[in-house]
Amino acid sequence: LPLFSLDMFTSLAIYDHITSTLLHPNFPISDPLVKSKRKTSRNPQEKDEERSFPDQNLQEEGEYVLDSAPPPLTLAQKLGLVASPAPGLTEGEWRQVKARSIQQGESGQPCAICREEFLLQPQVLLSCSHVFHKTCLQAFERFSRRKCCPMCRKEQYETRVIHDAAQLFRHKCATRIQAYWRGYATRKRFAILRKYSSPQDKHQRRKFFEEKLQELNDSFVRYCHTDTEAFLRDINHSLSSSRRVFQQLERKCVSEPQESDWQRIQSQVIQRDVWDCPICLTALCSPGLPAEAETSQPPRGRRLVLLSCSHLFHQPCLEAFEAFSIQTRPPCPLCRSAYHKKRI
Questions:
Q1: At 133, is the pLDDT very low, low, confident or very high (cuts 50, 70, 90)?
Q2: Strands of 123-126's sheet in order across
Q3: For 157-195, what is each residue's pLDDT tens digit?
Q4: 88-198 has which CATH code?
Q5: All residues at 6 or more sequence positions from 130 whose CB lies less than 8 Å from its CB, including other chains
Q6: Is residue 168 within 8 Å of residue 102, measured between CB atoms?
């Protein structure tokens, strides 16, 4: 081509590039004085629905690139007169960017713009592997009037909607719910086990059996068809009658046994075959009674006393018992009955 024609062709290509990239896409080239006309839908609500439903469907499907498709190359870009825009990231490159973001823990940290957790709010992944709230990034671009990453200041980035933070939040919520449920089930199981099993600690075991006894008493009182007050009065009356009988027996004089009675009482002692003093728990021995063993001889001066109730004691032991007793006439240390005594 002639030089003049080549220069004209180059000028037309550059002019076409300027008009297609710098001017408004709805601005008419033929008549600049005519106002640009924008197509408006008849019903604004339908337009909002058309704009919102695809986003919801895409979010339900999975991750997607938020940036619109790049415009076709102009003639100047095809001829190499103007630098062509960088091609968009492929799916494999996006996987690498996401892997780098996961390695840095971007989704687990708060948003760098608003410093709040992501939770279930939409989040976007930049081609520089930084993650932000979708609304925060849009507000940042609107107020800064430039497209650069708020963290690394990289310009002309690409954005992709991801759901890593939402998945982490759901996993955390599920873990917390499971922990609360396991804690509730364990506490309930422990309460049932504690209700029917006695603890190992001494004080706790005593308290456990006291509570069980109280429950039995309460159930007995609750299911008893008789009058409780009358029942308790009868018990008190029986106890008082028993005390009076025992007091009368204690005050009653016991007749002194005869010689034949003492022989019968001595035979009962021999038949019982017990040769230890119930007070000092040492061996008994008497000239008139057989000893349990020849080696177990009592000390000298410790004589034996036979009671009318057929119990045998050391004389010093019985005298000490009578001396320390607060009653004027103490009963037998074993059977608690009044007695007469005889030295043997």
A1: very high
A2: 64-65, 159-162, 123-126, 131-133
A3: 888 898 888 899 999 999 999 999 999 999 998 888 888
A4: 3.30.40.10
A5: 101, 106, 112, 149, 150, 151, 152
A6: no
Interhelix angle 91-104/164-196, nearest 10 degrees: 50
Query: Counting Cβ atoms within 10 Å, is residue 102 exposed (0-12), middle (13-18) or buried (19+)?
Result: middle
The helix/strand/coil state of 221 is helix
Q: What is the DSSP string of 182-206?
A: HHHHHHHHHHHHHHHS--SSHHHHH
CA torsion sign for 308, 310, 311, 314 is positive
Domain covering 251-286+301-343 in this structure, CATH number:
3.30.40.10
Q: Which amino acid is at 58?
A: L
Sequence spans of domains, the chain: 88-198, 251-286+301-343
Contacting residues for 334 by C-beta, under 8 A, at least 6 apart: 278, 309, 311
φ/ψ of 168, rounded to 5, equals -65, -40
Instruction: Identify any residues that bridge with 289 across adjacent strands, giving them in sequence order.
Output: 286
Structure tokens of 74?
């102009």
Contact at 8 Å (CB) between 231 and 217?
Answer: no
What are the backbone angles phi and psi of residue 65, rounded to the nearest 5°?
A: -80, 130
The token pair that represents 295 in the structure block: 């080696």
Say yes or no: do domains 88-198 and 251-286+301-343 share a fold. Answer: yes
Residue 165 tokens read as 């933070």
Give 245-289 as a 3 state SS string.
HHHHHHHCCCCCCCHHHHHHHHHHHHHHCCCECCCCCCECCECCE
Element (H, E) at 217: helix 202-223
- The whole-number pLDDT of residue 35 equals 44
